[in-house]
From TrEMBL, chain A:
CDD domains: FN3 (cd00063). Residues 414-425 have a biased composition (Basic and acidic residues). Residues 17-121 form the Ig-like domain. It comes from Pipistrellus kuhlii. Residues 1-36 form the signal peptide. Residues 398-407 have a biased composition (Basic residues). This is Cytokine receptor-like factor 1. Belongs to the type I cytokine receptor family. Type 3 subfamily. It is found in: Secreted. The lineage of its organism: Eukaryota, Metazoa, Chordata, Craniata, Vertebrata. InterPro entries: FN3_dom (IPR003961), FN3_sf (IPR036116), Growth/epo_recpt_lig-bind (IPR015152), Ig-like_dom (IPR007110), Ig-like_dom_sf (IPR036179), Ig-like_fold (IPR013783), Type-I_Cytokine_Rcpt (IPR050379). One of its GO terms (molecular function) is cytokine binding. The keyword Magnesium does not apply. The keyword Iron does not apply. Residues 331-362, 398-425 are annotated as: Disordered.
TrEMBL record, chain B:
GO terms for molecular function: cytokine activity. InterPro entries: 4_helix_cytokine-like_core, PRF/CT. It is found in: Secreted. This is Cardiotrophin-1. Induces cardiac myocyte hypertrophy in vitro. Binds to and activates the ILST/gp130 receptor. It comes from the Eukaryota. GO terms for biological process: cell surface receptor signaling pathway; nervous system development. One of its GO terms (cellular component) is extracellular space. Keywords: Cytokine, Secreted. Belongs to the IL-6 superfamily.
Length: 425, 204
C-alpha cells in the first residue's frame, strides 16, 4: 500500500483540448495519399494513474465524413500494437480501449498511447503517467564545512522508485522563529542532496526536513533538529609531508598543518593517519593521534614506497559536546623507507627476512632498551635522537631484530622528552 | 554549364571582397564548424527520441511532418539551386531554429525535468546562432546578397507554438520537439554539404 497522501491528479481526465491552431492540426493530421486532413481526440488526455489500476480511453475521429471511421482504427502503447480484443467500437467515429492492471510508466515523460488510422498514420496521442506516490524520505544527515554552509543528504522512501518524476525539496527553518526556507542547490554530493551556501546562524538549532512530490501525491520526512556547531567538518590537513627518519629503514615521519580555516575557533582536533604500500589497496589506520601535527610510523618494510593520508575531526567547537565529523583525507603523499644494506634472500636488498616471527610493537622494543639502560647507564634521561642512533647502530651491527609488521604506532610527544647519555656499546 | 558553378571563383568578381586567403580560411572554419555541429545535432536527435520513449526513434516511426512556424525541411530541389541561393536558405533556416529550440526546451522542462537534454537543447540554440552568424559573414565576404529578413516575431511565433503544444497535451509536445530536432539536424547537415562545395578542393 503506497504511503503518502493521494494527489489531486489521480485518475483524473483532462478536458478535451480546445480548437488547435493550424500548427497542431497539421502535426496530428497531415494529409496522406491525397486524403483530406483528419485528426482525432483521445480522452482522457495525459491521465495519471496508480500502478495496478485500469484505464478506459476513447479515440474519436474528427474531420470530413469521408475520413477514417472507428472500424479501421487501432491502438498502440509505447509503439506496440494492442490486441484487438482490448478495443471496441462505440459508434461510427469512436473506438474505445480498456486496459487493466497497468504497470509503471517506462519513461518519466509518460507512456505513449496512440490512436492510428487503418493505414498506420497517427491520428492522436495521449501520455499515460502510471506510478506510485512518494514515500517518506528518511535518513537525513547534514554537515557544515567550517561553519560556513550546510550540506544535507537523504534517502528517498521506497528507494525512490515511483515510476514518475518526483521532486525532492529540502526545507529548513530556525527552530523557534523564522520562516520556512527552501534549499536551492541540489545534487551537490549525489542525487539526493542539497547545499545551503550562506546565511546560517550558530548557537541556535535548525529544523530540517525533506518534502517529496509527484503527480500522485506528496510525503514529508521526519524533522531533523541540529545545531550547526555540532556537525562541523573542515578541510583536510594541508602541507602533509612524509620523510625518512635518518637511516631507519622501518620508519617514516609524517608532519602536517592544522586546518587553517578553523584556526580562530576553539576546538580540539583529532587526527587520523592511514598509509599503505604502493602496490596494495589495503590501508592501515593510525587513529590514536590527538591534537598533534606530527607522527612517526614504525614497523614499515625497508626500501618500500608508502602512500600516506591524514584527516582531521574538529570536535568540541565552541564547547560542542558532539563527536564532530571527519574531513576528507588529504591528497596522498608518498615516501620510501631506506633500503637495507644487508642483502636479503635471493640477493634482493629490500626483501624482509622470511620466517622470522613478527615482533611486538616499537613500544616493546623501547621498553627493552630502557630496561637495558637502567642497568648500564648512569643517567635516566632519554632522547629519541639518541634512541635512533642506537637503532641505527643495532642495524649496522647485524644483530637479530624483530621486524614490526603490525599497526604502526605514534609515540606521543610526552614520551620522548627524556634525556639520555649515549651508550658505550 | 560549368561544373564549378557556385564555386569560390564566381564570387571573386568584386574587388571589394576580402582577400582570398582570409576568405578561404573563413570558409574552412565555417565548414568545420558545420561538420562538428552535424555530429552534435545527430546526438541531440538520438537523445531526444530516447527520452520520449517508443515509438519515437523506432525505425518505422513516421509521424506527420508539416512545416513548423514557417520553417520546412530542405526541399528535394534544394541541391539543384545555385550555391548562393542554397547558402542563403541555410542561413535563413539557422536563424529560425534558435527560438524553436528554446520553445522545445521549455516543453521538455515539463516532460523531462532535470535531464541533460535540457542543456543540449540550449546548446543547440547557441550553436545554430553561431553557425548562422558565421555563414552570414561568409556570404557577406563573398558579396552575396543578404537573405530576406525573417518576419519580426519569429521568437513570439515559436513561443506561441510551444504554448499551444503544451495546452494540447504531452504527446503533441513530444511531436513538436521531434520535428524541431529533426529540422535542426537536417539544416545543419545541409549547410555542411553546401559549404563543402565552397571549400577549395571540395566536391563540385
Amino acid at each position: 500500500m503506497p504511503a503518502g497522501r493521494p494527489g489531486p491528479a489521480a485518475q483524473s481526465a483532462r478536458r478535451p483540448p480546445p480548437l488547435l491552431p493550424l500548427l497542431l492540426l497539421c502535426v496530428l493530421g497531415a494529409p496522406r495519399g491525397g486524403s483530406g486532413a483528419h485528426t482525432a481526440v483521445i480522452s482522457p488526455q495525459d491521465p495519471t494513474l496508480l500502478i495496478g489500476s485500469s484505464l478506459q480511453a476513447t479515440c474519436s475521429v474528427r474531420g470530413d465524413p469521408q475520413g477514417p471511421t472507428a472500424e479501421g482504427l487501432y491502438w498502440t502503447l509505447n509503439g506496440r500494437r494492442l490486441p484487438p480484443e482490448l478495443s471496441r467500437i462505440l459508434n461510427a467515429s469512436t473506438l474505445a480501449l480498456a486496459l487493466a492492471n497497468l504497470n509503471g510508466s517506462r519513461q518519466q515523460s509518460g507512456d505513449n498511447l496512440v490512436c492510428h488510422a487503418q493505414d498506420g498514420s497517427i491520428l492522436a496521442g495521449s501520455c499515460l503517467y502510471v506510478g506510485l506516490p512518494p514515500e517518506k524520505p528518511f535518513n537525513i544527515s547534514c554537515w557544515s564545512k567550517n561553519m560556513k554552509d550546510l550540506t544535507c543528504r537523504w534517502t528517498p522512501g521506497a528507494h525512490g522508485e515511483t515510476f514518475l518524476h518526483t521532486n525532492y525539496s529540502l526545507k529548513y527553518k530556525l527552530r523557534w522563529y523564522g520562516q520556512d526556507n527552501t534549499c536551492e542547490e541540489y545534487h551537490t554530493v549525489g542525487p539526493h542532496s542539497c547545499h545551503i551556501p550562506k546565511d546560517l546562524a550558530l548557537f541556535t538549532p535548525y529544523e530540517i526536513w525533506v518534502e517529496a512530490t509527484n503527480r500522485l501525491g506528496s510525503a514529508r520526512s521526519d524533522v531533523l533538529t541540529l545545531d550547526i556547531l555540532d556537525v562541523v567538518t573542515t578541510d583536510p590537513p594541508p602541507d602533509v609531508h612524509v620523510s625518512r627518519v635518518g637511516g631507519l629503514e622501518d620508519q617514516l615521519s609524517v608532519r602536517w598543518v592544522s586546518p587553517p580555516a578553523l584556526k580562530d575557533f576553539l576546538f580540539q582536533a583529532k587526527y587520523q593517519i592511514r598509509y599503505r604500500v604502493e602496490d596494495s589497496v589495503d590501508w592501515k589506520v593510525v587513529d590514536d593521534v590527538s591534537n598533534q601535527t606530527s607522527c612517526r610510523l614504525a614497523g614499515l618494510k625497508p626500501g618500500t614506497v608508502y602512500f600516506v593520508q591524514v584527516r582531521c575531526n574538529p570536535f568540541g567547537i565552541y564547547g560542542s559536546k558532539k563527536a564532530g565529523i571527519w574531513s576528507e583525507w588529504s591528497h596522498p603523499t608518498a615516501a620510501s623507507t631506506p633500503r637495507s644494506e644487508r642483502p636479503g634472500p635471493g640477493g634482493g636488498a629490500c626483501e624482509p627476512r622470511g620466517g622470522e616471527p613478527s615482533s611486538g610493537p616499537v613500544r616493546r622494543e623501547l621498553k627493552q632498551f630502557l630496561g637495558w639502560l637502567k642497568k648500564h647507564a648512569y643517567c635516566s634521561n632519554l632522547s629519541f635522537r639518541l634512541y635512533d642512533q642506537w637503532r641505527a647502530w643495532m642495524q649496522k651491527s647485524h644483530k637479530t631484530r624483530n621486524q614490526h609488521r603490525t599497526r604502526g604506532s605514534c609515540p606521543r610527544a610526552d614520551a620522548a622528552r627524556r634525556e639520555v647519555l649515549p651508550d658505550k656499546l | 554549364m560549368s561544373q564549378r558553378e557556385g564555386s569560390l571563383e564566381d564570387f571573386q568578381a568584386d574587388s571589394s571582397i576580402s582577400p582570398l586567403p582570409l576568405l578561404e580560411a573563413k570558409i574552412h572554419q565555417t565548414h568545420s564548424l558545420a561538420r562538428l555541429l552535424t555530429k552534435y545535432a545527430e546526438q541531440l536527435f538520438q537523445e531526444y527520441v530516447q527520452l520520449q520513449g517508443d515509438p519515437f526513434g523506432r525505425p518505422g516511426f513516421s509521424p506527420p511532418r508539416p512545416p513548423v512556424a514557417g520553417l520546412s525541411a530542405p526541399g528535394a530541389g534544394h541541391a539543384g539551386l545555385p550555391l548562393p541561393e542554397r547558402l542563403r536558405l541555410d542561413a535563413g533556416a539557422l536563424a529560425a531554429l534558435p527560438p524553436l529550440l528554446d520553445a522545445v526546451r521549455r516543453l521538455q522542462a515539463e516532460l523531462n525535468p532535470r535531464t541533460a537534454l535540457l542543456r543540449r537543447l540550449e546548446e543547440a540554440a547557441r550553436r545554430a546562432r553561431a553557425l548562422g552568424a558565421a555563414l552570414e559573414a561568409v556570404l557577406a565576404a563573398l558579396g552575396a546578397e543578404p537573405r530576406e529578413p525573417r518576419p519580426e516575431p519569429a521568437a513570439a511565433a515559436a513561443a506561441a507554438a510551444a504554448a499551444a503544444a503544451a495546452a494540447a497535451g504531452a504527446f503533441p509536445a513530444k511531436l513538436l520537439g521531434l520535428r524541431v530536432c529533426g529540422l535542426y539536424r537536417d539544416w545543419v547537415s545541409r549547410t555542411e554539404a553546401d559549404l563543402g562545395q565552397l571549400v577549395p578542393g571540395g566536391p563540385a
